[in-house]
Amino acid sequence: MPAHVPNAGLTRRDLLKRTGGLAALAAFTAACGGNTGRPSSGGGDGGSKVNLSQWYHQYGETGTQQAATKYAKAYTDANVTVQWTPGDYGSKLSSGLLSNKGPDVFESQLNIGMVKSNQVVALDDIMADVKDDFQPGDLATNTVDGKIYGIRMIVDPQVIYYRKSLLDKAGIKPPETIDDLISAAKELTTNKMKGIFVGNDGGNALGGPAIHAGGGTLLTDDNKIGFTGADQAKALGKLHELYASKAVLLGSPTDWTDPSAINQGLVAMQWIGMWAVPGMQKALGDDLGVIAFPALDAQHKAAVYSGGWTQFVSAKSPNVDAAKKFVKWLWIDQEADQEDWSLNYGFHIPPRKSLAAKAAKLQSGVAAETVKLTQDHGFTDNPAWTPKMNTALTDVLTNVIKKGADPAAEIAKAEKTVNAELSRLFG
């Protein structure tokens, strides 16, 4: 279940582009073909129970749709219908949130526009008793003006996994700086294998981690642009050096969210999420190591993007209280289902501290190492980061990585867009 990547171009898990409610209602009709996913009210086996529609995007892992349907079916206080959406979930969701024929409950990532447009309801009341059991970052990414609007469902750290035997054979230590990473990728490249795979676009997914590895952040805690410094420009420039080194795999049959490249021996290292660990272990056994995205230099720290998906209640739902009750039941009360969702369809970190601490599958090996890297170096999303900001940063990354444009000049262009958005949001 790879999570969305707010730092760069879209992946299959960044397909929603931070909804924000910008699409037209007509697009919803076209996307849905008139099927809202909500059963008709009353009657049938459901009697007088409330009908709720729960929306998911299409996960790639086998068994996820069946699991989501199983959870919903087990709920006895309402008739919950799961709508599983392949393709452009983001556009469909944006439109659906404008209509009372959209979802009652849905997964997404919080964007401040969803709050300002009254698309989601606050969940502080159902979170009150368990708030301290969630990681601070997972609360912060779902909080606007002191109110919590979503419950984190899974945490998806993104890191670099590598073949230990290949590094050992080449006499290479796991990279500690970006220069080390570039050097290792070059040395590991042969006529049959590239050193690293970071995505078919050349590495846009590395934008956020590189900025953090250079001492910056997309937005500061007081909502100012956080990547205009010389070190952040230098870190982004290093992504071009990596791309230009000819050690990066391009044209892989699947993108970086899938482990096929490293599993099939196309690369020695791959940028990917912890969700892929079971599949990599099946293919590679114990020949698997992990590092965070390396620091720019000894004066900075490594970085791990800690993505994830969150459950929300639509303010347009005709049954808000019933929807909140269901969300509480599934994502707060049903600990066994929460553990199942995080650990049996790829590996993810359960957002609840208590569940993560006892998750047996995450207590050893490369999974435990990934959890530790996330604890030490993890960063997550600021809900004030908007789609326009993301587009501006994507343009920076595309121009710098592939075209070799001057990072500082490109950042200056993005700064204008980011500041304009911040002024619009906060005055």
UniProtKB/TrEMBL annotation:
Gene Ontology MF term list: maltose binding
GO term, biological process aspect, one: maltodextrin transmembrane transport
Keywords associated with the record: Signal, Transport
InterPro entries tied to this protein: SBP, TAT_signal
CC per GO annotation: ATP-binding cassette (ABC) transporter complex, substrate-binding subunit-containing
Superkingdom to which the source organism belongs: Bacteria
Family: Belongs to the bacterial solute-binding protein 1 family.
Name of the protein described by the UniProt record: Extracellular solute-binding protein
Species whose genome carries this gene: Kribbella jiaozuonensis
Lineage of source species: Bacteria, Bacillati, Actinomycetota, Actinomycetes, Propionibacteriales
